[in-house]
Amino acid sequence: MEEFKPELGQMFFATNSLDKKCPTYLTDYLKQLDASMRKVKLCYDKYNGNETPFANCAISYDNDTFLAHAYDWNEDNEQEYNFKYKDLKISWYKYLGRSMSCNFIPDEEYCRNMIAECIKSINK
């Protein structure tokens, strides 16, 4: 897998990029989690809208399985990553799918299991 190269804005204004470029399938799995969070209206009541931590909206969500934190506009806060599951850390610039990086490249089976566990954890 190729080395991650941040886009210009991320290079100058953001602190959250990791070593590896995320494969497309990893982004697709995270989009499934985003859709599931919207479906169960996980963040609607708390934040008064149709947003999840995968958008550019300053929302955070943590449970015992994973954590997801939207892009942080506060330059004083060093944001190491936007999503964490076990040892996997994933970062993006402003919203899911944009300038995605991760600390290692999981295979698709790992991703399927990860997303199944994450979705199960929000449906409890």
Taking all residues together, what is the mean pLDDT? 82
Largest sheet: 6 strands, antiparallel
Q: What would you call the shape?
A: globular
- The H-and-E topology, N to C, reads as HEHHEEEEEH
Q: What's the Cα radius of gyration?
A: 14 Å
The number of distinct helices, counting runs of at least 4 residues, comes to: 4
Summing up helix and strand content along with how strands pair, one would put the structural category as: alpha+beta
Beta fraction: 5-15%
Oligomer: single chain
With strands numbered from the N-terminus, the spatial order across the biggest sheet is 1-6-5-4-3-2
Poorly predicted ranges (pLDDT <50, ≥5 residues)? none
Fraction of residues in helix: 25-40%
Euclidean distance between termini CA atoms: 35 Å
Tally of DSSP β-strands: 6
State the domain count: 1
Concise structural overview:
By secondary structure, this protein is of the alpha+beta class. The protein has one domain. 33% of the residues lie in helices and 15% in strands.
List the helices and strands and how they pair.
Layout (H helix, E strand, L loop, with lengths): L7 H6 L6 E2 L2 H16 L4 H4 L12 E3 L3 E4 L13 E3 L2 E4 L9 E2 L5 H15 L2
Antiparallel strand pairs: 1-6, 2-3, 3-4, 4-5, 5-6
